[in-house]
Design brief:
Order of helices and strands of chain A: EEEEEEEEEE
Oligomer: heterodimer
Structural class of chain B: mainly beta
Largest sheet of chain A: 7 strands, mixed
Distance between the termini of chain A: 33 Å
Radius of gyration of chain A: 13 Å
Radius of gyration of chain B: 13 Å
Distance between the termini of chain B: 40 Å
Helix content of chain A: under 10%
Number of strands of chain B: 11
Amino acid sequence: IVLTQSPGTLSLSPGERATLSCRASQTVSNDYLAWYRQNPGQAPRLLIDGASNRATGIPDRISGSGSGTDFTLTISRLEPEDFAVYYCQQYVTSPWTFGQGTKVEIK
Amino acid sequence: EVQLVESGGGLIHPGGSLRLSCAASGFSVSIHYMNWVRQAPGKGLEWVSVIYSGDTTYYADSVKGRFAISRDTSKNTVYLHMNSLRADDTAVYYCARGWGIFDHWGQGARVTVSS
């Protein structure tokens, strides 16, 4: 399954809302779609699994939605740690695949 | 507290071999799915391999036949044995826990394949 993320880069200010898209080349059954955030020089961190379930310790300003082939990650109010690269990932079928990433940068 | 610590990275010539280690603490690798995920410089994430119950293993096509994942439950450590290394294997290699959902990651081990 090929995942395509858009936009490639999102330029926003702290406190603004970010909307990131992930489109799959075929249906992601059971909503087996996860989102990760990677801050510079760090390992990725799990944010969302099952398309909409927040991982442990993830604040409620971060939310995931969607089903089928179209998924969205929304950050309602950007905090400093949110300026990072975000990856979606499917775990329906092996090999598990990631999108190419969306960078959220400070405007 | 769950922790994963990778080691064994470095500079290696094309065609060479290297073994990465991932030492786990706070849980047992014998009952969890353990993976290697890599990231080439300036690029995205690529899943490489998984090992789970009964030492069942799976690999990405890009490494099949060259890489082997294993674990030593007495040391609570997972390994990635890399052979016939190529320039396009250059990456940071992360150890990650989970079946499809990677809920804990190590800090990564850098592997550079260059002459």
